[in-house]
Amino acid sequence: REWGLGCLRLLDNYIAHDDPSVPDMGEPLARERWLSATLAPEQVAAAGLPELRLVGKVDRLDFDDCLGDSLKGGVQPVCIVDYKTGKPPNLKYSPAMNTKIRAKSFFQLRCYALLLARGGSDEGGVSTSESLASTRLRLIYLGGDTNLGATSLEDILPLDDLEGELSRVEEEVIRVWGRIAELVRSGDPSAFSHCDRPFCFCHEARPLVSKWLI
């Protein structure tokens, strides 16, 4: 019963914050859309790494009407929207720490922006990287088990250095891929550490692996 009531609270928060009958940015360009791209094949191969194909499912893509038609060449500015069932990050720390927390929170959405730029999707009219440019990122926290309502956080991507921003994200993904490949080559399951996401299956799998290694 409590689980069901919690789900209804999330739905109430969603409707109150983001009424689908009157969308803030008009009808979405896409919903629940798979995006994928093979990243930096020459760089990855030169590093001796397996092919890196990044895949993600974005909750929603909106036309960023805050920019209107300010982009050149018929490119559409896009707002990437991601819903979270939990609470927003607590930005009560020093400016440097708050910046780090925000960067971590928005990294997933930056990866979506990278996928749109490097590959995109063959579905829903978002098939070419040339026609879309990610300009705005929006995280909507539906409140978890609280009654505080939904909270929206936004981040603006720099139009004057969008490719540089996305290249930095790509470099970070490649670094992570390199660390994963190194751990796999080591052949030591115990070398993998837990992630910091309590819902991730790795927290269930790790004790099982430990038993097998004893």
TrEMBL record:
InterPro entries: PDDEXK-like_dom_sf, PDDEXK_AddAB-type. Coiled coil: none annotated. Residues 31-181 form the PD-(D/E)XK endonuclease-like domain. This is PD-(D/E)XK endonuclease-like domain-containing protein. It comes from Octactis speculum.
